[in-house]
Predict the 3D structure of the following.
Amino acid sequence: MTPFRMSTRTLQRVIPSVPASDGAGVKLRRSLGASQLARLDPFLMLDEFYSDDPSDYVAGFPSHPHRGFETVTYMLDGHMQHKDSGGNTGDLGPGDVQWMTAARGLVHSEMPQQTQGRMRGFQLWLNLPAADKMKPPAYRDIPAGSIPVVAVEQGAIKVIAGRFDGTRGAVEGGATDPHYWDLHLQPGALFEAGVPADYNAFLYAYEGDANVGEVGMPLPLRAAGLLSGGDAVKIEAGRSGARVLLLAGKPIGEPVVQYGPFVMNTREEIEQAIADFQAGDMGRAQVRRIKAA
Ligand code: MN
């Protein structure tokens, strides 16, 4: 018996990204969340926006509500500005992250602050358990410089959330204890790390090529690669290296009822969210601003 031997997760299901349009016509690619069956508890959606053509992004995401979950925006290139009903304004530049816990609801806008050049990044929707869905909303800006970067052999890991090998990420804890790593791997790099065995996890390669698990299953580019159970991940970068997001979190195990920007447990709660939004309640929310550590 070797009780401490780690079991390596395998690539179990691939959700390819499909072209989608959101906000006032921003073109993006949606993998997780492209359909109601394409989710991985507690993760609801992952959008990648990537364009050098201003007509794909300038319209932005004007004033809109959210209730019942968290949105996490990670910019790679470009400049986006957030404004919310609590009076917060936040500028997101390359490498910056905005972590917004919409909870009981708020209204915000996310608008590009550029009319040319490249706009690139990700927005993740992370669910909240019923016990947290109606808590007051909170918001935090995480500047690129305050996100820990851990050097590994032939690469570097940005620890946006959770923990990596003893390093605490910029965001930690919460009901789903999300782990959000951005892996930069050089050609041929072999990356292995522990991931809590009872957490759901997926990968999203946004550059290069990589193989996953002991048998080296190819991870398609710009697709969500859902991982099997296990307490470790193993990723081998191909000849051109790889840039890969790793997301892991504690599953919530509750029913999910989504209507656009509202994600609740029941249809009645969705109807209440719509009524509250129409009555202007979400636009009057106090939004707690959490200062980055
Ligand atoms: Mn939004």
